[in-house]
Design goal:
Helix content is 10%, strand content 39%. The chain is mostly beta strands. The strands form seven sheets. Strands 18-19-24-25-23-20 form a six-stranded antiparallel beta barrel. The N and C termini lie far apart (97 Å).
C-alpha cells in the first residue's frame, strides 16, 4: 500500500512539472516579403536557453511557465513575444536600415578582437627593443602584409608597401594629423625620423574596412600616437653607436602627473653617421615637447610640437645595375660589398664632397588636441594643427648647348647609371663620379655652364 502511494505521488509531481512546460513552435518570416528567415535567434529572456530557425524559418523551443521570447536577427528589428500558454507563435520581423557614419580624422586606434579590421599594434617597448639603429619604418618588417625597405639606402629614404599598395595609398597619421604629402600622396620618412623616440603606440590597419582614418587609406593606414600625460615621471640619457660611423645622443625628461592635472615631456636627440651605402653621410636632429592638462574627468587638452631637421646624401633609387655590373664595381670597394657602391658619389676640384642626390629638410608640426568624453560609448576628439616645411634637394640638369658645339650635354650625363651599366662619361679611375671634370668643362666654356646642378625647393605652410 505504501509503495502504491509513493508511485502515485511521483506520477502526480511529474504530471504537474510536465503541465508547467510548453513547447512553443512556429515560423519567423519577413514582414514585407513573407519569406522565411533562416538563422533567427530565439532566446528565452533572462536565460541562456534558446534556438535558431531552420531553412524554412521554423523553430521549436520548450518554455517553462510564462516567459518572454526574444527574436533577433541582423538587419531586422528585435521583437519580444509573451509565450504564456501559447503553443504556436508565428512571428514577422521588420527590416531596419543602419546608416554609416561619415569618414572622420581622429587619433583613436582600433581595438584588437573588437574592430572589424586587420590590426597590428607595436608598443614603445617593442620599438625600443627591436629598432636599434635601423630606420623607423623598418620596425614594421615583421608586421603581416607590410613590406619595408631602405629604397636607395640614404638616411630616412625608406619606403613602405602595405598589401601591395605603395605609400601614396597608405594613410599615415600622427596624433590624428595626416602627414602624407599633398602633392604626390606619399610620405618622406626622413622628415619624421625622430618619431621612433617619441612614439607611445604604433598601429597598422591593413586593407579596406571600418577604419577611422581619412583617405587615401585604400591599402591601409599607419596610426602613430606620441607620448603625452601617460608618460611616467623620470628621465634618461643615452649614447648609441653602430656600424658605418653611426652615432646617436638622446635625452628625455617626463614630469609625470603634477598637481593641478599638468604633465610635460621634453626630448631631444642628434644622430649622425657615414651611412651604409657609400657616400650617404647624414646628420639629423630631433626635438619633442608635450604639455598636457587634464581639466576634469571628461576633458583633456594636449599641446605637442616636434620636428626632425636633417641633411643627408642619397643613392638614387633609379641607379640600378645588372648582376654582372654589380660584381664588376666591386673592384672599386676595396674588399667591401659591391652593393654599397654609389655611382653618383664624388668630389669637386677643391676636394669638396658632392652628389647629384642630396636632401635637407625641416618640417616641424604643432598640434593642439582636445579630448571630450561624452559618456560610456561616445567621445569627441578635436585637433588643430600647423605644419611648416622648409628645405631643398639637388638633382642633375643639362645645360646650354650651342648648335655647333662638338659635344652635346644632356641630363643623362649626370646620371650614375644608364640601362643597368655604370655611366662612364664622367668617371674617375677609383669609380667616383668626376664632378671635377664637369667643373673644368664649365670653367673653360665661353658660353657659361654646360652642365649644372639644380636645387629644388619645397616651402609650404599647412594648417
Amino acid at each position: 500500500m505504501k509503495k502504491i502511494f509513493l508511485l502515485t505521488l511521483m506520477a502526480l509531481l511529474c504530471s504537474a512539472y510536465t503541465l508547467s512546460q510548453n513547447v512553443v513552435k512556429g515560423y519567423v518570416r519577413d514582414a514585407e516579403t513573407d519569406e522565411p528567415l533562416v538563422g533567427v535567434s530565439v532566446q528565452i529572456e533572462g536565460t541562456l536557453s534558446g534556438t535558431q530557425t531552420g531553412l524554412n524559418g521554423e523553430y521549436s523551443l520548450q518554455v517553462e511557465g510564462n516567459k518572454t521570447l526574444i527574436f533577433s536577427y541582423v538587419g531586422y528589428e528585435t521583437r519580444l513575444i509573451e509565450a504564456s500558454d501559447a503553443t504556436v507563435a508565428d512571428v514577422k520581423l521588420k527590416s531596419t536600415t543602419i546608416e554609416l557614419k561619415d569618414v572622420t580624422v581622429t587619433s583613436q586606434i582600433a581595438i584588437q578582437r573588437k574592430t572589424p579590421v586587420a590590426v597590428s599594434n607595436i608598443s614603445f617597448e617593442t620599438i625600443e627593443e627591436k629598432l636599434g639603429n635601423a630606420e623607423f619604418p623598418e620596425v614594421l618588417k615583421s608586421t603581416p602584409g607590410v613590406y619595408a625597405t631602405k629604397s636607395g639606402g640614404g638616411y630616412g629614404d625608406s619606403k613602405i608597401n602595405m598589401r601591395g599598395f605603395k605609400s601614396e595609398n597608405i594613410a599615415v597619421m600622427v596624433n590624428g594629423v595626416p602627414v602624407n604629402d599633398m602633392e604626390w600622396g606619399g610620405v618622406y620618412w626622413s622628415n619624421w625620423a625622430g618619431l621612433s623616440d617619441v612614439t607611445r603606440t604604433m598601429q597598422t590597419q591593413r586593407g579596406l574596412g571600418a577604419s577611422k582614418v581619412s583617405s587615401p587609406s585604400v591599402g591601409g593606414s599607419i596610426n602613430i600616437i606620441t607620448k603625452a600625460h601617460e608618460a611616467k615621471k623620470g628621465g634618461s640619457a643615452q649614447y648609441t653607436i653602430g656600424n658605418d660611423g653611426y652615432n646617436k645622443l638622446l635625452f628625455n625628461i617626463s614630469s609625470g602627473m603634477l598637481n593641478g592635472g599638468w604633465a610635460f615631456t621634453v626630448l631631444g636627440s642628434r644622430t649622425w653617421g657615414n651611412g651604409y651605402i657609400q657616400g650617404t653621410g647624414f646628420e639629423g636632429w630631433n626635438y619633442f615637447l608635450n604639455i598636457s592638462k587634464i581639466i576634469n574627468d571628461d576633458h583633456t587638452l594636449s599641446f605637442t610640437v616636434f620636428g626632425a631637421p636633417q641633411t643627408h646624401y642619397q643613392r638614387n633609387s633609379n641607379d640600378q645595375l645588372t648582376i654582372a655590373e654589380w660584381q664588376r664595381v666591386g673592384s672599386y670597394m676595396n674588399g667591401d660589398s659591391p652593393y654599397k657602391y654609389n655611382p653618383t658619389y664624388g668630389f669637386g676640384l677643391n676636394g669638396q664632397r658632392k652628389a647629384s642626390s642630396f636632401n635637407q629638410y625641416h618640417k616641424p608640426q604643432l598640434s593642439l588636441n582636445w579630448n571630450w568624453d561624452l559618456g560610456q560609448k561616445s567621445s569627441l576628439s578635436t585637433v588643430v594643427y600647423a605644419s611648416i616645411g622648409r628645405g631643398n634637394g639637388y638633382s642633375g640638369q643639362g645645360g646650354y648647348n650651342l648648335p655647333d658645339a662638338a659635344t652635346k650635354y644632356t641630363n643623362s650625363n649626370l646620371y650614375g647609371t644608364s640601362n643597368g651599366l655604370v655611366n662612364n662619361i664622367f668617371r674617375n679611375d677609383d669609380g667616383t663620379f668626376a664632378y671635377n671634370k664637369i667643373e673644368e668643362i664649365n670653367a673653360n666654356s665661353s658660353t657659361g655652364s654646360l652642365l649644372a646642378m639644380s636645387k629644388s625647393k619645397n616651402f609650404h605652410n599647412w594648417v
